[in-house]
Amino acid sequence: MQHSSFNQSLLSFLHSSPTPFHATDSMRQVLxxxxxxxxxxxDDWSIxxxxxxxxxxxxxxxIAFTMPHQNVNRTGWRMIGAHTDxxxxxxxxxxxVKRHGYHQLGVEVYGxxxxxxxxxxxxxxxxxxxxxxxxxxxxxRLIDFKEPIAVVPNLAIHLNRQANEGFKVNPxxxxxxxxxxxxxxxxxxxxxxxxxxxxxxxxxVASILDFELSLYDTQPPALVGLHKEFICSARLxxxxxxxxGMKALLDSQEACPSLLxxxxxxxxxxxxxxxxxxxxxxxxxxxxxxxxEHFVQSIQRSMMISADNAHALHPNYASKHDGxxxxxxNHGAVIKVNSNQRYATNSETxxxxxxxAAEEGFEVQSFVVRSDMACGxxxxxxxxxxxxxxxxxxxxxxxxxHSIRELAGSHDAYGLYKVLARFTGRKELIAK
Length: 432
Fold this sequence. Notes:
single chain, alpha/beta, Aminopeptidase, Aminopeptidase i, Domain 2, 2 domains, 9-stranded mixed β-sheet, 5-stranded mixed β-sheet, 10 helices, 28% strand, globular, protease, metalloprotease, EC 3.4.11.-, metal-binding, hydrolase
């Protein structure tokens, strides 16, 4: 796959994935189209040599893997990890609010969102709705309104003269999007039922039971810059890594068993049944290991690359970086290091990546947070700590992380994909 077609596929994936449910479904469709077989956790599994498989949990997390042979305890796994969720505004259960002549939606903030970036944007609504059918079944369906149906208007500067001196957004009072005026009737459950019937004909909706819905910016992803050198989009953190990991798995050299894990809830700590701090990955790996001894052997011959975006040096805020560890956009992926184990990188896992990148002819950068600033974290330390797999934390340099619209390099994603695809075929990791 060439650089330009790779980026176009990436933009399409980002556009079709407004929520973790939709991102997982987008990956599911691509995997099915490429010959992967879907497994279900409640069923017995029959894994064939040379087979390609995937399984989802909660419709928002996914594990896909290839099995070129069954001697996993002798070769280990080549794993790539990412997460499907992004900071956003999620609807509260009793979402419909009437205030001062307008229909609005009550929201809560999911993750560490940059709140002011949600103002004055054309917003839509997507997620999962669970309902009861006329036949008595309880069913869930994904919905996406796609069209802009809501907006959170800013307050005019005439009414807030200190706005440009900095202001704090109150998420309880000031982030409620406006849907319409109250002169138009609105029953929110009826609105959801109509959307389900429109997207899923013959759904036979009797009553809406519950929902998990998020607002998102309808502006599509784009290549921007004088020479189209940037990718501008919502949810680059971390759907960019999900897409890169998926493409690497599809093009894996199949010398070793390879695995992609994309989990939900990273932005809120990963502690859930389908999060990295839950049992999903270990459950799958143990089902693929005939004995506990084989499981431990395979893990100790494996390596995980946790891919999550990194902070690029912002030219307007250069003082926020350690000058010797300030990555630039379009100069390669970033190895993330933290001595307090906020990242799981060690000298051996970093060296393996550096060696593969050199073989492929791609640059590698390093990131260490300033010593006087707090450091974020990823699924890397969680996964490494849960199952004991040697892990590398890496990411693509990004501006505006956790904004409603983020910015990354149009050359970096393709480079990371090429290195990860080669990693999946790397038989020897560290000579012992």
